[in-house]
Amino acid sequence: MNSSSDNGNKYPRLLFPNVYSFAPNRDTLGGTAYFLTHPEGNILIDCPWWEDPHTINFLRTQGGVRWLYVTNRSAIGKRIPQWQAELGFTVVIQEQEAYLLPEAEVKSFSQELSLATGLTGIWCCGFSPGTSCLHYQSEEGGLLFSGRHLLPDVQGKLSLIKTAKTFHWPRQQQSLSKLRDRFACSSLTHIFPGANTGFLRGQGFYQDGYQHLEAISIT
Fold this sequence. Notes:
alpha/beta, six-stranded mixed β-sheet
């Protein structure tokens, strides 16, 4: 399912067992969205490019979407209420970003949210006030969808990246420390960043996730 259509649109790529990645989305500043299949309902993590005709077809053939989990305000795509009405999903987002979706049905949370078996949303303030990560403890290990909290740098190294859009740099550093305290090698085996995935040179994610987390400089 990784072939391209004549107009340049791309099918999602099977990246890992039960995890598909979408092509970078021009509407979310080049963000990468993911689709996670789960026995209690499928999760779309951040917004893909809805205008790609393959997107909706793919989601339907996979059994639909129960939740759209939005990791940060930059990952909010166009016309979410329209696609929510069509696909029937609930938007999940940290409470400080929820006001950005006044016309959508939203499930918000404060510190963390147990969404389904093995699925936990974790507030990681820094890039934006309501930035969060989604952790999935699966049979294959602990997967962390890090949104824009943790990103590859130009060398492909997992990093905290300060930009002009960064809301609060010290809090982003504190959020990294919180993740280090929360996880271990067994509970954080893979990391899926929400942007800059081209710097991963086709790999698409980080293996040995906790080791990469530990190696990040917070200075």
